Amino acid sequence: MAEEKLPYTETINSIFTARRDLMFASKWAIEGSKFTMEQADLLVALYGVKVLGWDDLKEDKDGYVPYRQLEKFLVHNPSLLSRRIIKLANAKPPLVVVKDGDVAAGQHFNSKRVCLTEQGVKAIAPVWKRYETMAEKLLQDTDAGEREIHYKVNNEISSRIRLIRGGLSALLSGEV
Question: What average pLDDT score do residues 66-73 get?
Answer without folding.
Answer: 85
